[in-house]
Amino acid sequence: MGETGTRIRRHTKLSVVGAGSVGTAVAYACLLRGSADAIALYDTNAAKVRAEVLDLNHGTQFAPSCRIEGSDDIAVTAGSDLIVVTAGAKQHPGQSRLDLAAANVALARDLTPGLLSVSPEAVVVFVSNPVDIVTRAAIAASGIADGRIFGSGTVLDSGRLRYLLAHRADVAIENVHAFVVGEHGDSEVALWSGATIGGVPVKSFSVDGRPVFDPETRAELFDEVVRSAYEIIRGKGATNLAIGLSSARIVEAVLRNQRRVLAVSTLQTGRHGLQDVCLSLPTVVDARGAHTVLDVPLSPEEEAGLAASSATLREVQASLGL
């Protein structure tokens, strides 16, 4: 408390690693939302990072106050409270996220210790795909397994599902609660048993006495969730705007200590029988990172799907020596 009795708020620093389409979307979304007091952009391409920082700074008059800097020197990230890593090879049309594994795992192994050497107290969030495998590699490389390193996981997938449910039910998306869990990828699982619209279970939601979400409709909508990234990549080369916004939500949960429940990817330690694999389940996110995985009830089909998703990720981990 100062002499006037006014509490002085601690300034927060966010660093975004990677000035590609996803990294710049994360920085832009965080600038517009006022997610942090300072944003540092780090990329090995000096000309690209300088151009992106200039472009962002030219718009700061029209956004909440924020200092923006960038460099091809990792020192620009020093003193970060939170680091969002988007760097890595990007997904090409027709390529699965798991196909990216080897190159981006090597990057995570090299990059993570360097980032933590200049920001030893930072929370680190990986967005680079395949995010579950990359997050597991970063945890192994750093030895930090307490939730301070985690992945963006299926936060965006859950948002895609909620959008489709809201659109079909003709209600505001804020009144839809549903999670996608498991791998951020083709083996992910929708938790239909706990999904609700305005407190009404999705499976029994009806309009004029007719059910809106019969089994065929649910299957169709979830298939759209799984396929949507491929469709966007075919059309414009990358998914970036929605992941920028969903990452900003994660950033705010950490920097503002919000204790939000988000479907982020963490190292599993026994919940639902899952061990030594990073995947997404509803998890409390706050200033310490992602540290409390909720015991969400699962149907037998969901339990089996989650186990299969874990097995898929374990197979890739083993092939990469994780």
UniProtKB/TrEMBL annotation:
Domain annotation Lactate/malate dehydrogenase C-terminal: ranges: 154-315
EC top class, as a word: oxidoreductase
Pfam families documented for this protein: Ldh_1_C, Ldh_1_N
GO annotation, cellular component aspect: cytoplasm
InterPro entries xref list: L-lactate/malate_DH, L-lactate_DH, L-lactate_DH_AS, Lactate/malate_DH_C, Lactate/malate_DH_N, Lactate_DH/Glyco_Ohase_4_C, NAD(P)-bd_dom_sf
Record-linked HAMAP family: Lactate_dehydrog
Active site: H184 (proton acceptor)
One term of GO molecular function: L-lactate dehydrogenase (NAD+) activity
Description of how activity is regulated: Allosterically activated by fructose 1,6-bisphosphate (FBP).
Residues at which NAD(+) binds: 18-23, 43, 48, 88-89, 104, 127-129, 152
Keywords, comma-separated and alphabetical: Allosteric enzyme, Cytoplasm, NAD, Oxidoreductase, Phosphoprotein
E.C. number(s) listed in UniProt: 1.1.1.27
NCBIfam families, sorted: L-LDH-NAD
Residues bound to beta-D-fructose 1,6-bisphosphate: R162, H177
Family: Belongs to the LDH/MDH superfamily. LDH family.
Name of this chain's protein: L-lactate dehydrogenase
